[in-house]
Amino acid sequence: MSEQTNTGTVEQKKADTTTEVKESVKITAGLSKFFEQVADFSIFMGRYFRELIRPPYEINEILKQCYLVGYKSLGLVGITGFIMGLVLTLQSQPTLAEFGAEAWLPNMVAVSIVREIGPVITALICAGKVGSGIGAELASMKVTEQIDAMEVSGTNPFKYIVVSRVIATTLMIPVLVVLSNALAFIGAYIGVNITSDVSFPLFFAKVFEALKFSDVLPAFIKTFFFGFAIGIISCYKGYNSNKGTEGVGLAANAAVVTASLIIFILDMLAVQVTNTILN
Amino acid sequence: MAEQENNSAKAVTSTEAVVEMTHVKKSFGTNDVLKDINLKLLKGENLVVLGKSGSGKSVLIKCLIGLLQPDEGTINVLGQIVEDLKNEELNALRKKVGFLFQSGALYDSMSVRENLEFPLRDSKDLSQEEKTGLVEEALANVGLSEAIDKTPAELSGGMRKRLGLARTLILKPEIMLYDEPTTGLDPVTSREISELILEVQKKYNTSSIIITHDMPCARITANRIIVFKEGVAFAEGTFEELSKSEDEFVSEFFEQ
Ligand SMILES: Nc1ncnc2c1ncn2[C@@H]1O[C@H](COP(=O)(O)OP(=O)(O)O)[C@@H](O)[C@H]1O
Ligand SMILES: [Mg+2]
Predict the structure, then answer these.
(1) Is the beta carbon of B50 within 6 A of some atom in ligand 1?
(2) DSSP class of B231
(3) Interface pTM (ipTM) of the complex?
């Protein structure tokens, strides 16, 4: 009898330790999966740079992708840029008026748009539009064995598919940001003229007076990194999709979520780097 | 007699093996898909591989072309050991081996013409006119000439299979790998595809591995049949021989 109880407690203890072990195994498995992904992504990026410099170059495909990424996003990016400038002006106007600093409105709006809001909002919109498109497209090419088919026909699908898309996003996102900023200024001009009367030349004189080279250049440089991040992350998620039709949606989703997060992290790093360099 | 000749595979006279697999093993995690595969494909031969769904037939031919790496064993294709090849050598070998995917694997974003031109893009010595000529010839071969400016989405199942076949044949491969070429097609279209496979064998003297569980297709195309069971080649013989087999597993296929 007593023996039985003894075995009971021993087994109980054993079971406890097993659940503990199971928990820690889960955590280790999760962690190791994360590091596996990071390592895998680094290899993917390494391969990108190797294939990027090695000829032959897929010029036609790059141009086609630039068209798809850039031209097809013009409308969306333009409209959001315009609204961004308009709303930012209308929202800031009362606060500045309280301090009697209304005359500074164009300067303030210009700096916020060029330094921060233009690049980040445009990049986020492109992460949503372009990133999800690339993620879903590559995942469905993977699922329907189109990527395998390119490989067995002796073509390098990585170069044809991944490199051309990443180049396109890296080059086109900055262009879209510039466009978005320009339309944001026009929105801001209209916003200013709702409550007061500022002439077009005066408004833009103030805008360009506010913008220093040290605002424009770092902001412009970071948009290339945003573009690169959107391209390489969505390609990675799509190219490595493996779970059938369901994987297409997952890849599109993961592309947008990861790219958006990375854009914020890059933006934070960019501020740090710029401040360190300028001081 | 003449009709008999037209409707069955061309007799194989060669004893030269173009593909040789020895002790090939492949597993995914704990799933041992290929356990010990030994297989020879002779020059000019149509070899049919029969096996249930999920028995590793697609994995077998993907290993052959280097899309998957076997865990053990060697695969010799046209005198070269696949796993020893460098990237460029593998690409050169792949141009000599055609692969018709189960799903067709057509490039959705391209037109029929662009689908066919894609395998030719590395052929720098061909002029644009020559490429167009090859594309038109390939389409005529499979009876799809009028579809040249359509997109794959506009084609029927049978047409998609034929387009896949045309795209594979455009490089005039020495070896063809067909992954379930007739699955999902009606009996009439299946028969047409099977006859196309025969035509390819006769016209270009290709050696082929044909994966199927469509018995009419096997009967039309096969010189020799291998039956897959649980990761090994379980039985082998001509259609005649295997159809008389007393083994339950083998005869199940032939009862359809
Ligand atoms: N890339 C892969 N990763 C993991 N498992 C795979 C992969 N490819 C195939 N398998 C597994 O191998 C087995 C055989 O698949 P397959 O060769 O496609 O069968 P079939 O004989 O129907 O063509 C299946 O159980 C499948 O789940
Ligand atoms: Mg299969």
Answers:
(1) no
(2) T
(3) 0.87
